[in-house]
Specification:
This protein has helices at residues 17-51, 59-88, 101-137, 143-167, 169-172, 204-246, 251-290, 294-315, 317-324, 326-337, 343-349, and strands spanning 177-182, 187-192. With 362 residues, it is mainly α. It has a two-stranded antiparallel ribbon with strand order 1-2. The two termini are 40 Å apart. 36% of the residues are buried.
Amino acid sequence: MATNETLSGSEQIEKSALTVFGGWFTSIHGYSSLTVCCFGIPTNLINISVLSRKDMRNPTNAILCWLAVADLLTMIPYVAFVIHFYCAFDPYDYSPEKFTFPWAVYMLFLINFVATTHTISNWLGVSLAVFRFVQLRSTTKGPVAKRRLYNTILKVIAGIYVCSCLVLVPNYMTNKIVEYTDITTNKTAYFIEDIKLGTNDTQPIVVVNVLTYSILTKIVPCILMTVFSGSLLISLNLSGRQRRRRLSVTSTNVRRERRQTKTTRMLLVVIILFLVTEFPHGLLIIISAVVPNFYYTVYSPLGDLMDLVALVNNAINFLLYCIMSTQFRTKFFEMYFNKLSSFKDRERNQFTTSLNITTTSV
């Protein structure tokens, strides 16, 4: 995540059009990101409550549910951060009243915490692409096999959460708090140390940590999501042609195939959003580590914009589920508006877009 703690380096760079844009966007970042969080926090709570229902539990929904948990964990602590550093104070205010030691500690915690939740989200996106690809090609049937697969998915999710924390331990140690004392007022302000990325003063261990972070948490997951998403599209196209050739033309078969296709398309949209959000970010981090002054001239001015785009990605899944999943939409209205579907609606829902896909629905 981007913050305004960097004092050295950026002040020495002549203002460009991108720097001017970054300054303007920083001025509106506080309230815009706060608006996104105020929408995303309750909607992710809704996602969790709907997807964790007993009649909605299956491997796909388990991944989506824990993805909502990661998104929720990203946005909740960000609210206090953005209120203090962007709303209560001017974004370009570096006064000791704003940068107190407790708030510096909170900023350090948030930087590391958000990096972890983003890593978890990215690898859950990979698992979603891999699982859906395997699911379409699987011929496994039966309740025992389905329960076994569900338990396997839960272990994968737990492994992603634990491994994401362990992999980022070196990154946690990169950021440190430094203090600046104003000799005229004798007041001390606390900031996150400038790692001087892309300069001659950059420490080798910092470069290694930054490259490791960007490759393992962003670039590699995005490549895997791209590969399996492409394979998923090819597999979906081929399996659709094969079904149309071998299945009798009945309303049940046609509706079932439409359900499978629409569900896969919805999951692909979720994955594509990850790629649009995370791959450019990871690429910019790598370039910042190897190209002199790129961090100050390009990455830093775009930092707040990338933060907002990531927050939008965290908050938008609820809208996708409501638009593209009839069963999610039905469950949502039943739970929060006591709007029960008629028997005819329930019967129709069995043949429309559904998140509740089992391993036998291939």
